[in-house]
Amino acid sequence: MLEMRPDCERCGSDLPAENPGAFICSFECTYCADCAGDLDDLCPNCGGELMDRPTRAKKLHDKFPPSTSRKFKP
């Protein structure tokens, strides 16, 4: 199951699990749409392709909670 990380690793913007607009690589590095575009859809950590992250319905957050661990480091 995906972690559904809560923020963009590059700029720190919030990326709620229930909203579209997040991009991930195969290691779940997570970026907002603007940063993914600036990175030419390539993960700077592993070189993998950044793809649209699926959303997780809000009603499933209690049973399958998204991560609360933020990855952005200014």
Largest sheet: 3 strands, antiparallel
Mean residue pLDDT: 96
Reading the helices and strands in chain order gives: EEHE
Main sheet strand line-up:
2-1-3
* Class from helix and strand fractions: little secondary structure
Q: Which percent band covers the strand fraction?
A: 5-15%
Number of spatially distinct domains: 1
Low-confidence stretches are none
The total of beta strands comes to 3
Total of helices: 1
CA-to-CA gap between the ends?
28 Å
Summarize the amount of helix as a percent range. Answer: under 10%
Globular, elongated, flat, extended or rod-shaped: what is the shape?
globular
| Gyration radius over CA | 12 Å
Pfam family, one: DUF1272
InterPro entries: DUF1272
Protein name: DUF1272 domain-containing protein
Word description of this protein:
This protein has one helix spanning 33-38; strands at residues 22-24, 30-32, 51-52. A three-stranded antiparallel β-sheet has the order 2-1-3. The chain has one domain (1-56). The protein is built from one helix and three strands; from the N terminus they run E-E-H-E. The protein is globular, with a radius of gyration of 12 Å. It is 8% helix and 11% strand. It is mostly loops and 74 residues long.
